[in-house]
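Possible regression after last week's pipeline update?

I re-ran a chain I had predicted before the update to compare outputs. Posting the input and the new output here so someone can diff against the archived version. Not blocking, just want to make sure nothing changed silently.
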Amino acid sequence: MAPSPQYIVGSPINRGQGSSSNNNGNFFTRFLRDEIFAPEKRQGNLDIVISVGVFLATISFLQNYPDLVSCGL
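New output (post-update):
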């Protein structure tokens, strides 16, 4: 007999249940909610993600095609 789903996925992190002292969740969930998914910080977070993506794409391009970027020195 298979275990019930609560043993597979664990207990809920924060669904408004329990005591009022636990409503804020742990550090990681508060960080995600307050810094990553907060509507007033989304534009800045999106700018960071785009910048890191362009940086990584540039590094990858330069490693794969170094002959296209030669200065002729």
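Follow-up from reviewer: compared with the archived run. Helices lie at 5-9, 27-36, 42-64. Marking as no regression found.
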